[in-house]
Amino acid sequence: MRLLLVEDNPDIALWLQKALSASGHAVDVAADGVQADQLLSYEPYALVILDIGLPRMDGFEVLKRLRRRGNKVPVLVLTAQTGVDARVHGLDLGADDYLGKPFELAELEARVRALLRRSQGKEDGALQCGELSFEPASKRYSVRGQPLALTPREMAVLEVLLYRQGKPVSKEALAEQVVRLDQDLSPDAMEIYVHRLRKKLADSGVVILTLRGLGYMLDVAK
Amino acid sequence: MRLLLVEDNPDIALWLQKALSASGHAVDVAADGVQADQLLSYEPYALVILDIGLPRMDGFEVLKRLRRRGNKVPVLVLTAQTGVDARVHGLDLGADDYLGKPFELAELEARVRALLRRSQGKEDGALQCGELSFEPASKRYSVRGQPLALTPREMAVLEVLLYRQGKPVSKEALAEQVVRLDQDLSPDAMEIYVHRLRKKLADSGVVILTLRGLGYMLDVAK
DNA sequence: GGCAAGCTTTCATTTCCCTTTCATTGCCTG
DNA sequence: CAGGCAATGAAAGGGAAATGAAAGCTTGCC
Q1: Cystine design at A220: which of A118, A130, B11, B41 (Cβ 3.0–4.6 Å)?
Q2: What letter does residue A167 receive in the DSSP assignment?
Q3: Shortest distance, CA A108 to any CA of chain B (angstroms)
């Protein structure tokens, strides 16, 4: 994972950079707020470790500007200020975690792991295939940002196909995933849903292929 | 929003429940740690207010178990212990904010608002959607500056929809956020509130869409 | 060609949602 | 304390969308 460490004290910066590199991360270091702000506006990072006391632009300002640009990257704030007010301030600005100095290296590493894990977990929230994307949390599909109106059954079928994109799914398997155990549904009904889905997905950059005798497969259109 | 208040002192519990209910929240009360732990494992809350000194299981343990289950609900910790150690302990366990006893009611309410706002990923004080705006501090809705007359239930429903604007909210989820545990309300009643809200929001530039099978969604009118 | 698998349309049924009505409750006011 | 009023939510009827069976048609494979 690629991290940005924003820390003006060269000793601490070097110490943390070494430790985090040893954990297998790629660590960039910014020594002041302006430099951090610039890096963050065009480089993609998986995590930011942000000191508050910085030359030229303080950490709160860096954070505020970051969030104002709509960047959702997880931010771990480091600070010597232990007051609740400072913590509340940081969290209100969109920090994801907070660590007061001095801290144990082990604790920092644990929090970095936790934040990365959490943000990775969020990403399995957005399934994509070609121009089609799916948000499991809200059960919504969209094509190039345009929401796609699907019926519940259609959503269920498409979801299964999406999770197994590039792999064939038999009609029987589909039927089992789509209805509850206590219900009875002929696998032939899948043909109807696939038919309706194909119409609605006509210009979505995604197609449902038929693999005769095997089932259906979601794939990007060519 | 539906809150859980965990407080063993009946006087304080009643006082806070009344105050928070007056702010338009649905407030359940748990009088000991075990009860709180059980409620938190199967009821959805938007916020937890957690006293530390509790019978049967202390607040730290409740918090630890809550986070271990992966529950991310915001937690505001109340405590008579003013030491930094206790505070750090609570925050390390995953508390989101910290308030020492005694406290002003106004401060508690402010922190509750801040946590609710932050947990929804919003940064502005006033929630907005199209021409409709909502002031959390005073619980007032207005359209183009004109105040909107809503009943308490209508406000509660609209608030939930507003916090999740652009995302569908099922009737069941709505019902759970709008009423307390000891109340009984059929999800079908949501249809009535939505119906009444739609009439009152007729020319507000905001519509409540029906996503069949999914729920309702607040969106700007087109 | 023949057959099986899949495609498409039709349509009755079911499910979900909208809307109105009305009994009940709690609060305000005289 | 009575009467009025607003809020609430259950019930029921109507209607639109979703569903899935049936049946005829098309396509691919031998």
Answers
A1: A130
A2: S
A3: 12
Q: What is the mean pLDDT of the segment spanning B78-96?
A: 71
Report CA-CA distances (Å) from B85 to A99, B81, B82, B90. Answer: 14, 9, 8, 9
Contact A163, A146 (CB under 8 A): no
Q: Report DSSP letters for A100-166, one per residue.
A: ESS--HHHHHHHHHHHHHHHHHHHTTSEEETTEEEETTTTEEEETTEEE---HHHHHHHHHHHHTTT
As a rounded value in angstroms, the CA-to-C1' distance for A115 and C4 is 54
Among residues A220, A106, A213, the alpha carbon closest in space to that of A169 is found at: A213
Q: Residue type for B67, please?
A: R
pLDDT digits (tens, 9 = 90+) for B42-80: 888 999 999 998 999 999 999 988 988 778 888 999 887
Whether the pLDDT of residue B125 is over 60: the answer is: no
The encoded tokens of residue A37 equal 């702000």
For the CA of B93 and the C1' of C17, the distance in angstroms is 44
Closest-CA residue of A relative to B212 is A151
Chain A residues 64-83 with a CB less than 8 Å from chain B: 67, 82
Say if pTM beats, i.e. exceeds, 0.70: no
DSSP code of A15? H
Report CB contact under 8 Å: B167, A138: yes
Q: Angle between the B10-22 and B105-119 helix axes, to the nearest 10 degrees?
A: 60
pLDDT at A191: 93
CA end-to-end span of chain A, whole Å? 32
Residues of chain A with CATH 1.10.10.10: 127-220
Measured from Cα to the C1' atom, the residue closest to D27 is: A212
Between CA B39 and CA B50 the distance in angstroms is: 13
**Closest C-alpha to B134, from B156, B115, B110:** B156
- Alpha-carbon distance of A80 to B17, in angstroms, equals 36
pLDDT in tens, B14-37: 888 888 887 888 899 999 999 999
**CA distances to B24, B40, B44, B183 from B179, in Å:** 10, 16, 11, 6
Query: Tens digits of per-residue pLDDT, A148-192?
Result: 889 988 998 998 898 888 888 888 888 877 776 556 678 888 999
By the CB < 8 Å criterion, does B98 face chain A?
yes
Give ranges for CATH 3.40.50.2300 in chain A. Answer: 2-119
CATH topology of domain A127-220: Arc Repressor Mutant, subunit A (1.10.10)
d(CA A63, CA A57) in angstroms, rounded, equals 10
Q: Do B213 and A87 touch (CB under 8 A)?
A: no
